[in-house]
Amino acid sequence: MRRVQPGRYTAKIDGPFVVFLIGMRINKLHRPDKWLPVAMAMPPMLKTLQEHPEKGFMGGESFLYWRGVALAQYWRSFEDLERFASEPSDPHRKPWQRFNKAVGTGGLVGIWHETFKVEAGSYECVYGNMPVFGLAAATTHVPAVGQLERARTRIERLRAPAE
Questions:
Q1: Is the predicted pLDDT of residue 135 greater than 60, yes or no?
Q2: What is the pLDDT of residue 161?
Q3: Are 75 and 126 in a shared domain?
């Protein structure tokens, strides 16, 4: 378990990045033969990404919600994300093909993703009394003090040209 960092912190990253949210929803609980393979496809993908930082994955967090699981992921670029999703030798394409064949549009399992391209300085975040988490875990975890203490000044400071 990650150690709690008392106090207030924020994340620092130079340049643009991508936030990729991805998840699944179990629509028919009584059909684990359909939803379990979908759920089990993600761990090998994450393992590959963690072992190969050159692929552009910077980090992420997992979340459980009623009938589903989601991941918030941080990527260096949209091109890196797209390359990983479509490269035949990476562990995404085959599970995606299996999903389309086994589940398709049958409605037993839902899948979703949302992709956000974030320009340099167009983000702000704060973590109070939390382990190093989210964007701060994927980038640089810094104290939210001085000009980084409030949301407005965090985002305005990040947007300011470098001195």
A1: yes
A2: 57
A3: no
| H/E run at residue 74 | strand 68-75
At 32, list the tokens. 């684990």
Domain assignment present for residue 24? The answer is yes
pLDDT above 70: residue 81: yes
Amino acid (1-letter code) at residue 30:
H
Q: Give me the residue label for tokens 């810094």.
A: 142
Say which residue the tokens 């379990």 belong to: 36
| φ and ψ at residue 72, rounded to 5 degrees | -100, 120
* CATH code of the domain covering residue 57: 3.30.70.100
Pick the closest to residue 58 from 127, 141, 134 (CA basis): 134
135 domain residue, yes or no: no
Q: Is 79 found in the same domain as 60?
A: yes
